[in-house]
Write a structure and sequence with these properties.
It holds the Pfam family Cupin_2. With 138 residues, the protein is an all-beta fold. The protein has one helix spanning 23-26; strands at 34-36, 46-52, 61-62, 67-73, 75-80, 83-88, 92-95, 101-105, 111-117, 123-126, 136-137.
Length: 138
């Protein structure tokens, strides 16, 4: 974008009072994984912060948007379609729209990985659903 395309004037006063979303408010169930749904907080993206033990991780699923992973700690075996990648601390991988994918903790310690969804809601279809063409919005 060049300067001629910018049509807004920045301000120091946000339109709404900024809100902090605490880690505790995003925890799913009794585990250590957290889910942030952007639409609920005025954000254009959503994410999962996953904290898994060895062997754990989501099975095959797909989204109608891209997903990008950033490995914070540990080793992930990421499946993207019929390919597999081994990702370690600091690595980033992206799955294209509509491609089956999943990941597992392939290391001996914990896997901490940020899964960024290019959507303000999380929409995913699991391979093991009776009708794998149907989507689940979370």
């Amino acid at each position: 974008m060049n300067a001629a395309e910018i049509t807004m004037t920045p301000t120091m006063t946000p339109p709404d009072e900024p809100q902090l979303v605490t880690a505790a408010s995003l925890v799913i169930g009794t585990g250590r994984t957290r889910r942030f749904v952007g639409r609920e907080h005025g954000a254009g993206i959503s994410y999962f912060y996953v904290d898994n033990e060895p062997g754990q991780g989501p099975d095959l699923h797909w989204h109608p948007y891209t997903e990008t992973w950033f490995v914070i700690e540990g080793t992930a075996r990421i499946t993207i379609g019929d390919r597999q990648l081994i990702a370690t601390v600091g690595d980033t991988a992206t799955v294209p729209t509509g491609v089956w994918h999943g990941f597992k903790n392939a290391g001996d310690g914990r896997l901490r990985i940020l899964c960024i969804h290019a959507s303000d809601v999380i929409i995913q279809t699991w391979a093991d659903e009776p009708n794998a063409a149907g989507a689940t919005t979370r």
